[in-house]
Design brief:
The protein has helices at residues 52-81, 92-101, 104-128, 133-137, 152-167, 171-174, 185-190; strands at residues 16-17, 24-25, 48-49, 140-143, 193-196. It has 198 residues and is mostly helical.
Length: 198
């Protein structure tokens, strides 16, 4: 089954609405030569949305890119600033237990350069082309309801939504597996879709 939504058209038995005027759209419209909204007459462009596994693979590519760039810069910055160690001289099970005692603000201060560079990486690529390196490798694109890359404000909101989705035990990300339109918390907040390129 091909699930399509951008410009309001899903190829499935589920009814949907036009993103321009919110008119109900019969799924049978997808079979027309040039599908259009019955109310506002705007063209509807069927597409395929990306599922959880393809998006996870793209995330692994992007995570590797960030680890090799922003992560290494963060380590160099920490070596230059020479802050006191978070775990002191703990090792083994003691270090693991001390990890659980760490204060979140202390950890965030240590990784804040990586977080800022990651937010810039995603926000800029999404707003400029709709694709990060991981999306390009796996032929995915982040688009708004009209098939365009999200505007900078919406891309920034999507970055924030990623952080919120992770903060609630990654449930904001995993929601992609259960959502009819394959959208996570970040997609709903930013009015975006992740689509597969033909």
């Amino acid at each position: 089954m091909i699930r399509s939504r951008v410009m309001g058209l899903w190829r499935s038995s589920c009814p949907t609405v036009c993103p321009a005027c919110d008119a109900a759209i019969d799924p049978a419209i997808a079979e027309a030569d040039v599908p259009t909204c019955p109310e506002c007459a705007l063209p509807l462009r069927p597409i395929r949305v990306a599922g959880l596994w393809r998006r996870l693979a793209a995330g692994l590519v992007d995570g590797t890119v960030l680890l090799l760039t922003a992560g290494l810069l963060n380590l160099a910055l920490l070596a230059w600033l020479d802050p006191p160690p978070l775990l002191r001289e703990a090792s083994g099970l003691d270090a693991l237990l001390r990890l659980l005692e760490l204060e979140v603000p202390a950890v965030l201060r240590r990784i804040s350069p990586t977080l800022v560079m990651g937010a810039l990486y995603f926000g800029l690529f999404w707003s400029l082309t709709g694709q990060t390196l991981g999306h390009r490798v796996l032929k995915l694109r982040v688009v708004d309801p009209y098939g365009q890359p999200p505007r900078p404000l919406w891309a920034a909101l999507r970055v924030l939504g990623h952080g919120l989705g992770l903060a609630v035990g990654a449930m904001g990300w995993l929601w992609v597996a259960f959502d009819r339109e394959k959208r996570g918390l970040h997609d709903h907040l930013a009015r975006t879709y992740v689509v597969r390129e033909s």
